[in-house]
Amino acid sequence: MQSSEWHTTSSPRPKKSRHVKSKKIVMLIAFFDNEVVVHHEFVPAGQIVNCPFYVQVLKRLREAIRRKRPAKWQGGWPLHHDNGPSHTWIVVQTWLAEKNILLLHQPAYSPDLAPSDF
């Protein structure tokens, strides 16, 4: 893309910026309720978010809810997550059922229905 500024022939040429890709990728897993972020953690570099890792995250989430939201800990609490592979494994589903955590299912993708619409 060329600069659209007018310059005299004797003025120095404008410097063009270079686009440099960021080499750092950071993944954040966050859980929140209607008031605050209840639990968050950064995924370590190189870690794949697979079933065993996600169950460990859920265990830490459960502990955070016990500390920060004791009323929800006593009465149970709903969890809404997407249909990612690590979320739909039977091990995760079984663990959630054993802990009496109500799972709110994510509807299939539809251009006229976004998570913010309900």
UniProtKB/TrEMBL annotation:
Region of interest called Disordered, as start-end residue ranges on this chain: 1-20
Positions with biased composition (Polar residues): 1-12
GO MF annotations in UniProt: nucleic acid binding
Transmembrane regions: none
Span of the signal peptide: none
Protein name: Mariner Mos1 transposase
Species, as recorded: Araneus ventricosus
